[in-house]
């Protein structure tokens, strides 16, 4: 980041409170610099502590109280009075906690045409705001999101079924990391473009002529973001903050079962925009309301220039096939396969796998769920471990993890939909293969209606899995698939990744050749490869700012959160040049 970027430009749109934004810039620009340095170096970077021990009980209590205060009421969406011409057609409540109760929070349904008109109208002011001013505004909003960390923790629990720690991390802290990463990467992409130069040229015997070139970035237009339920903030924030940083206006359609985290986010952004003197309709939230096809109707609107989709593959494929007037980014479902060939850290491997299966009930798109192992067993320094022993040890460790927990829900969280519960029942009944560990509903005294289930383990041969029409896209069912040898495991993993989509692959091996082959496989299918994870950093985890998440190679996604094009595609470069003499 060059020194000149730290010198605010003097021009600013009319009505903008540049003095206030200037103070925000002075407060926050060091964070931007520090984050850019971390991205460039690839080092581990935690802009905010993600250890609960560093926060007080008072903050946790305040978050719980703030959440409780929202229940059973109309959501106080800020600055509706400033969005002239946008009518509220009705108030709708559709959220039910996976822990067994309705939130009964109602949200206003905004009229579609008027909302798009306001979003387009806001483009001029927001898009013409200098880059550093937009960065300052978004960094101030990020700080306020951080102040609401424990509200987002509670929201993550009761919209996405997170455990408390998962809510704290995925719904709050690590989502904030993703926002900061998006601001920084999009800022850097634009500052390399926004420049001017002077040059002199002579043509033939003619006199010297002087010219000045001016290059700048311009937004594409309105960005529609269609969100999912599992980790909505973590998945929506990259697109939201990248597009806003690029000068686009944004309309978010959250998942109807996870509207609250986006509503709170929109409120905070609107407050900061209003204080800065910029249109609050730069950001808007559209709920499903009375229309079950709202996402498709919004996507078809010609004002939309960018679409970001996070969710099940059917809708993602529909967008990729049918929407041609907008740039479409998709993050769809994925399955993480793991190859077990050999290991020198058997106990650590067993613990890593068992916890990965339990954590958040394997609902993450990076949760390890399909395990390939040779029928002859896996090699260890102490001899060959056969399949029965391996599964027995994993089963024992799963039971120990759940037994040692204060409550099973602190590890498992709660399942988010009825289909997952039915899939567990099918696994127990042998629909998917031989059940070797039955899923069980876990009682919870605090939330008697909670859908908390222990994992199911299923054993089958590689030939058997081809007979099934599909693998459940998420949820605590782990498949252990026996193959003839390591080469067959690689082949099956490649087929799985290219058929279903895979963001991540794991392998355990002592063989350099097997490792080399796995690296080649990961390159072919475009998946992050994790080798020999045996500590308490798990296969499902990835480091914001450095680890890859997403690619264009397999069906899981057509974009990646660390891919430069994910950010640079959200604006276009323009130039004007003037003859000086």
Lay out the secondary structure.
Layout: H1 18-41, H2 57-70, E1 88-92, E2 96-97, E3 101-102, E4 107-110, H3 112-127, H4 131-147, H5 149-160, H6 164-191, E5 195-201, E6 209-219, E7 222-226, H7 232-245, E8 249-253, H8 260-276, E9 283-285, H9 294-300, E10 304-310, H10 313-322, E11 327-331, E12 336-340, H11 346-358, E13 368-374, E14 378-380, E15 383-385, H12 387-404, H13 409-412, H14 418-428, E16 434-437, E17 456-461, H15 462-465, E18 477-483, H16 486-500, E19 504-508, H17 512-525, E20 528-531, H18 564-568, E21 571-579
Oligomer: single chain
Briefly note the structural class of the backbone. Answer: alpha/beta
**Approximate helicity band:** 40-55%
Strand order of the largest sheet: 16-17-18-13-12-19-20
Number of strands: 21
Distance between the termini: 33 Å
From the alpha carbons, calculate the radius of gyration and give it in angstroms: 25 Å
Residues in β-strands, percent: 15-25%
- Mean pLDDT, as a whole number? 92
